[in-house]
Design a protein that fits this description.
Blueprint: H1 26-59, H2 79-102, H3 125-131, E1 139-143, E2 153-157, H4 166-169, H5 172-190, E3 194-198, E4 211-215, E5 226-228, E6 242-248, E7 251-258
Antiparallel strand pairs: 1-2, 2-4, 3-4, 3-6, 5-7, 6-7
Length: 267
């Protein structure tokens, strides 16, 4: 809101005639405009150099690492090598966009089923799916609708444990039912190569609580974490982080303290 401020004036404090207006200092203004132009040109040149370097690193040479009057010879690209470079750049861009899209933060999300626009509300599609399930189905499974994850299954409670720390708000029997259903589907689909993951609150894109079931990618196993004997020992996490676990002989290898955990699974 624009505030109109009216200053009080004392009619006796100034002569009746209006004092002359200050004259602009053209020389000073010209110096300021010159400095602004130089600053703008400097930023423009830096932007151009950044773009050149980005392109150069992508294709294997560094344009600004050579004197201005010297142009390095163009590398002898074959058709296959060029396609490989382009694929590498495209993959890097896809990974960056994927990383950005993962972080959605559903700690304060609200999915009101009576809202006529809920179908258009970001992060509420699983809430709608849960409401469609029969009342006697405490846990249900659906395929991941993300077309980039054709090998994933989702396991969900029908009850609306939306927002932050859903595991801490479930009862122990509800958590055990969730993990038991997830493990059964994982074994049925992937044998002994399965893993189950639940993202942290900041990394989740869906308001409704859900866990990911899929095949554990090679090289994702680490020496960190703890070993537990059965799913009843899985923690009721209350600090907003996620967890993931996989079989280790007759035990489960549990990893906690991470936000993005589903990346250990095949898409």
């Amino acid at each position: 809101m624009t505030q109109h401020v009216q200053r009080a004036t004392n009619p006796t404090s100034h002569p009746s005639s209006t004092p002359p207006l200050p004259q602009p200092n053209f020389q000073k203004n010209q110096k300021i405009r010159t400095k602004q132009t130089q600053f703008s040109l400097s930023n423009s040149n830096k932007t151009k150099d950044l773009l050149k370097n980005t392109i150069g690193f992508a294709f294997g040479f560094h344009p600004t690492s050579h004197p201005a009057n010297h142009h390095p010879p163009r590398p002898p690209y074959t058709k296959e090598k060029l396609h490989s470079r382009i694929s590498l750049c495209a993959a890097a861009a896809f990974c960056a966009l994927t990383a950005l899209s993962i972080h959605a933060d559903v700690r304060d999300c609200v999915c009101t089923l009576t809202n006529p626009t809920i179908a258009e509300t970001r992060g509420c599609s699983l809430c709608i799916e849960a409401a469609r399930q029969p009342a006697d189905h405490a846990i249900f499974l659906v395929r991941d609708s993300d077309p980039t994850k054709p090998n994933r299954w989702l396991v969900l409670p029908r009850a609306p444990y939306d927002g932050s720390n859903p595991l801490a708000r479930m009862t122990a029997p509800e958590r055990l039912a969730l993990w038991t259903a997830a493990i059964a589907k994982a074994k049925e689909t992937w044998g002994d190569s399965w893993a189950v993951a639940m993202n942290g609150d900041i990394a989740r894109r869906q308001c409704h609580a859900h866990v990911h079931v899929g095949k554990l990618l090679e090289g994702k196993e680490t020496e960190t974490g703890v070993f537990i004997d059965n799913p009843s020992q899985l923690p009721a996490i209350s600090d907003g982080t996620g967890l993931w676990f996989h079989p280790a002989g007759n035990r489960l290898h549990l990893h906690t303290g991470e936000q993005i955990t589903e990346t250990v699974l095949m898409r």
